[in-house]
Design a protein that fits this description.
Among the domains are: about 80 residues; about 100 residues, no CATH class; about 80 residues, no CATH class. The protein is built from 21 helices and no strands. Helix 16 crosses helix 17. The mean pLDDT is about 95. InterPro entries: DUF6880.
Length: about 400
């Protein structure tokens, strides 16, 4: 299992097993499928502990097994004490420590009695673990660890336990529909935009739409970082679903804060037939960011001519986007893109490897077909001859040129 290919093969097998278990759950009692699922889960966890799962195939299969386990448990609840023992053991004494359980997903199976017992067990663990270290204590630990490496294992176990306890506190606040607890456990000290977004998601999960929208808005305008950009997507989606009359204002606010092609498309979709009334404002803002303006015109508006004009007038400096634009504009004016394709050939030949030689050869062959029968055809053949001569000491390049049918 230390070999990547073997781990991948095993992971595919686990996915097939999950599919079979789900099929069995459709026809057999959940109580019969649950123990098999639990044994499959235990086996997969032992395997991933010693596997090279860099592809994530085994991990994804285990997540599917966990989801199936929760469904089966709710359909055929075991005795509360047994279920609580399994939940605690999985999270705090498991074979690996990088999978989380959602106690809210097991809420129906636990019932009031089981949930009370579960919370009691968590409280006991929290008391044994103690509070998180202060900043000064954390600094002292790192100094001591240099002299005593054994401290690492001890502190790592405590860190994991505190992480699991915090995760459970958040999910149990959602299960209890405790608004104050949701804010305390999700927003924490409110110093990170992502935590405000987490709070919004928790409120949305329990149907507290107004609170969800408000917290998502707070996260959006927290700062201009990527976390706030992510929160903006949630804010606009919630507004679109629950307050459609306010969607355009939200989309415009997000676009004005981050004038990107994606946010411009959000405005376009929100205004619908009124797009012409807002087009000028959107395009003026996008012109300050050539790549976004060209991308919006090319991919969203599907206006190749506009994209071409913007790329030239705004001085676009993104080779990848120029390449995409050239491929699209070729259908409008084949000869106009010859300089762009030529530049791409020269860029490829700056790298001395077979992959780039092959790409350059294909591009040159395409240029010859594109200009065949035009006044530019001789120029392309001359370019090929010049490149063969300039790189005459690169036999692999010569081979790729010949293979592509170049003169």
């Amino acid at each position: 299992m230390h070999r990547w290919s073997a781990a991948n093969s095993y992971g595919h097998g686990v996915h097939q097993a999950v599919a079979l278990l789900r099929q069995a759950a459709q026809t057999l009692p959940a109580a019969d499928v649950l123990p098999v699922t639990q044994r499959a889960l235990a086996s997969a966890l032992k395997a991933i502990a010693r596997a090279d799962d860099s592809s994530g195939i085994i991990g994804d299969a285990i997540k599917d097994l966990l989801a199936l386990h929760a469904d089966l448990t709710n359909a055929a609840p075991p005795p509360p004490a047994r279920l609580v023992a399994w939940l605690i053991d999985f999270q705090f004494d498991g074979v690996v420590d990088y999978f989380t359980l959602d106690p809210a997903a097991y809420g129906p199976a636990l019932g009031d009695r089981g949930m009370a017992l579960y919370k009691t067990k968590l409280a006991e663990i929290a008391a044994s673990v103690g509070p998180a270290p202060t900043e000064a204590e954390e600094h002292a630990y790192w100094l001591q660890r240099t002299a005593d490496p054994s401290l690492w294992d001890q502190q790592a176990g405590l860190r994991h336990a505190r992480f699991v306890l915090e995760w459970n506190a958040r999910r149990l606040a959602v299960w209890d529909r405790d608004l104050d607890a949701i804010i305390a456990t999700h927003a924490r000290d409110r110093k990170v935009a992502a935590w405000l977004e987490d709070t919004a998601k928790a409120f949305a999960e329990i149907g507290e739409t107004a609170l969800a929208i408000d917290w998502a808005r707070q996260a959006t305008f927290f700062d201009r970082g990527h976390q706030s950009v992510n929160a903006a997507r949630l804010w606009c989606r919630l507004v679109s679903e629950h307050r459609p009359g306010e969607e355009l204002a939200a989309r415009l606010a997000v676009f004005d804060r981050w004038p990107t092609a994606t946010h411009a498309d959000g405005v376009r979709r929100a205004v619908g037939e009124a797009w012409p009334d807002h087009r000028g404002h959107v395009m003026d803002a996008l012109r300050q960011r050539p790549g976004e303006a060209v991308s919006f015109a090319l991919h969203t508006l599907d206006d190749v001519r506009l994209a071409w004009d913007l790329a030239h007038s705004l001085g676009l400096d993104e080779p990848g986007l120029w390449g995409t634009l050239a491929d699209r504009y070729e259908k409008v004016d084949p000869l106009a893109v010859v300089p762009l394709h030529t530049r791409q050939v020269l860029d490829h030949l700056e790298y001395a490897d077979a992959q780039h030689y092959r790409a350059a050869a294909r591009k040159l062959a395409h240029l010859r077909a594109l200009t065949r029968g035009t006044e530019m055809a001789d120029g392309i053949d001359a370019l090929v001859a010049d490149l063969r001569d300039a790189h005459r000491r690169r036999p692999r390049l010569q081979q790729e040129f010949t293979r592509a049918g170049l003169p």
